[in-house]
Each structure stands twice: as structure tokens, then as C-alpha cells.
Write a structure and sequence with these properties.
Largest sheet: 7 strands, mixed
Order of helices and strands: EHHEEEEHEEEEHEEEEEHHEEEEEHHHH
Number of strands: 19
CATH architecture of one domain: 3-Layer(bba) Sandwich
Structural class: alpha+beta
CATH class of one domain: Alpha Beta
Distance between the termini: 21 Å
Helix content: 25-40%
Strand order of the largest sheet: 4-3-12-13-14-11-15
Length: 373
């Protein structure tokens, strides 16, 4: 496994480990160890429209090992996975190794070229798996066609101190006039995701930091005494949101998964969990032909066939939320009325199972099948 950075310690990324991923951890025999790491548990999905509180999803209703979303810094989760993978004799992790291009033998991908602190590196492989995200070097080097579905939003990430007297909810959506914001509980501080129109960050910078602080407080009033912790624009990280997918996820010797195959919006934090589901499916479908030296392109196509539909359905729901919730919020000078589906979920608690299922498990859950080696 080649990792561009020297470590995983990079903030402002998804921290949600959903019930589907926790189920995979249980099937691998790693769940108890994982949950010993510091984390918070999000049992209910809550949205606040001004003073109105709506309960949108109840993860405790799910028929899964864990009836909650675990909120854990992604670097802790990745460090945990790598520490357990190192126990396997065939695993090798190369940090500080940035893939720059693919190696071809005719039309077949046979490896990658990378750069390291010690100079260039070439790695040959029977199969290259591109899991390098929405700006994937692998997929661009392979010339795979990207279909852009459009995303009308960007996200500004920042943090402020969390007080013990703050609302206890681990993850809450806040809506005010023209504004949408998500707070994620990281125990000592809030990780804040402030959603804006696509490309509007330069205009906010021109308006000034004081204006931005006032907007944050107008959206989440209890942060009034902490907005000054946003000292300058360096404390605010821009995530340029993309929603796209590859027409074809593979070519001879290459398979793309996760955001490299289908870049997701950060809405509901499903990206890393869909990527893990892709990985589980790929492992189950590709391990036998790889071990038997019989891997064909049809095997790679089988992974796309299994995982493409869940990814595309999820993207369609995200696009609907962009258009019918976020754009309505941005277009209105006043606080909008909650959409009907949100109100119905709040009125009829049994519907909160449905939203919890869509977010926490998805549209095709993958399961680990352990074999004796």
C-alpha cells in the first residue's frame, strides 16, 4: 500500500464510522479493539431549524451489531487498520510515497511509478487498486472517463472549543436563514462544517473574517463566546465538493474504488463507508482469481457491477438534498420550513429507521467471509 503522506494526521476530513463499517470490523474480529479508542456515539440524527428540533434518524433501531455512528478522528481509524494489517505477512505500507503515474505493458497496467524522499520508485503488481480519492492520479493516468454530476456546494471546515455545558448531541445539523452548518463532537472541541454555495469562498473572504464569525454565531448561537477562536482565514479549510463517477471503473490490471470511482458529497458522511464496502466486495470477488493466477477483466467488471448501483443511488439522494434542501436554504432570506420528509420522520418515529438504514447501512451491505488459510 502506497500512501502519499508521511502520516495520517490530517484534520478536516470525515470522522463518521457507520454501522455498516462497524459490522465489518466485528466480522474481522476487530470491533472491541476499535471501540476502545476515544470516540463519541451518534445514536440519533438531529436537525435544528432555528429553535425547532427535528429527529431525523434513529440508528438504535437498526438490526446491526452497533446501533450508532462512531465519531472518531479518521487518522485514529487509519492507524488502527494499518497496525492490524501489519500483522499479516503479505502486507507492506510505504508512507511518504506519492504515486505519479501508471506503468503499462501495451494496454495493460502492470504497476505504478512513485516518488519518495529517497528518489523515484517503481512497483510492479498483478493488480493495481486505485483508492486515492476524488483527485485520483490513478484514474487520470489510466484515462478513465469521469462523469460529473455537479455539486452546488463547498464546505468550510474549522474548529472551536467545546464546553461541557454545550448541547450533548454528537452530530447535529443547524439551519438558519441562508445558512447550513454541521457540528461534530470531538470531545474537547467541535469540528464544524459550514456549507456554502460552490465558489463563494472568495466573496466571503472579501467580506471579512468578522462577517464570517457573525454568520457562524447567527447559525449556531451558543458559539457566540468562541467565534473569536477563528483567528484568521488559515483556521478555515476549504473542501471543494465534487459528485462524480467513472463510466468504467477498470481496465486490464487496474481497478478504482471509493472516491476514485465515485466521488461523494460530504452530506451524511457516507464516503469512507462506501469505500470500505467497495473494498470488501473487491476482496471477496478478486481474491480467488488472484490466488489462482486467473484474474481477468471480467472479474474487475464484476466488482463494478456489484458496487456501482449502491454508489449511484446514494449520489442521487445527495444531489436531491443539494437541490431541494441546501439550495432552498441559500436562496431564502428567511428561515425555511423544514422539508416534508424531515417533518414526517419527526412525526412518525418508525420512519427514522428508514433514514437510519439509508445513511448507516446503505443500499447493499457487504459482509466479510473469512476463509482458513
Amino acid at each position: 500500500m502506497l500512501e502519499k503522506h508521511e502520516d495520517f494526521f490530517r484534520d478536516f476530513r470525515g470522522d463518521t464510522i457507520h454501522p455498516s463499517t462497524l459490522e465489518v470490523m466485528h466480522e474481522l474480529g476487530l470491533l472491541d479493539e476499535l471501540l476502545r479508542l476515544p470516540h463519541q456515539r451518534m445514536v440519533k440524527g438531529i436537525a435544528r431549524f432555528g429553535e425547532r428540533v427535528l429527529h431525523m434518524a434513529d440508528f438504535s433501531r437498526l438490526d446491526t451489531r452497533c446501533g450508532f455512528i462512531a465519531l472518531m478522528p479518521q487518522w485514529d481509524f487509519l492507524d488502527f487498520l494499518c497496525s492490524r494489517a501489519r500483522r499479516l505477512p503479505g502486507f507492506r505500507l510505504c508512507m511518504g510515497t506519492e504515486v505519479t503515474s501508471l506503468v503499462f505493458d501495451g494496454d495493460r497496467v502492470v504497476g505504478v511509478k512513485a516518488k519518495t524522499a529517497d528518489g523515484p520508485l517503481e512497483v510492479r503488481a498483478k493488480l493495481v487498486v486505485g483508492a486515492d480519492g476524488r483527485r485520483s492520479i490513478v484514474r487520470s493516468s489510466a484515462g478513465l472517463e469521469v462523469i460529473d454530476s455537479g455539486a452546488p456546494i463547498d464546505v468550510l471546515w474549522f474548529r472551536v472549543t467545546r464546553h461541557s455545558s454545550d448541547p450533548p448531541a454528537a452530530g447535529t445539523y443547524y439551519v438558519s436563514a441562508g445558512q447550513f452548518m454541521v457540528l461534530i463532537n470531538r470531545d474537547e472541541y467541535w469540528q464544524c462544517a459550514y456549507v456554502i454555495r460552490k465558489g463563494s469562498f472568495p466573496e466571503r473572504q472579501r467580506r471579512g473574517l468578522d462577517a464570517f464569525r457573525r454568520d457562524v454565531v447567527r447559525c449556531v448561537p451558543f458559539l457566540a463566546d468562541r467565534a473569536v477562536e477563528i483567528r484568521d482565514w488559515a483556521d478555515v479549510k476549504l473542501l471543494s465538493v465534487r459528485v462524480d463517477h467513472l463510466r468504467c471503473w477498470h481496465r486490464e490490471g487496474l481497478l478504482c474504488i471509493g472516491d476514485a470511482a465515485h466521488a461523494m458529497s460530504p452530506i451524511a458522511g457516507v464516503g469512507i463507508n462506501l469505500a470500505i464496502q467497495d473494498a470488501v466486495a473487491a476482496a471477496k470477488l478478486l481474491a480467488p482469481p488472484l490466488m489462482n493466477a486467473s484474474l481477468r477483466r471480467a472479474d474487475l467488471a464484476a466488482v463494478q457491477k456489484r458496487r456501482e448501483r449502491p454508489a449511484r443511488i446514494t449520489q442521487r439522494f445527495q444531489i436531491l438534498l443539494h437541490k431541494h434542501l441546501l439550495e432552498r436554504i441559500f436562496d431564502s432570506p428567511e428561515l425555511i420550513r423544514p422539508p416534508l420528509f424531515m417533518r414526517m420522520a419527526d412525526w412518525f418515529p418508525k420512519l427514522q429507521w428508514l433514514t437510519a438504514r439509508a445513511i448507516g447501512v446503505g443500499f447493499r451491505a457487504e459482509h466479510v467471509e473469512l476463509r482458513d488459510s
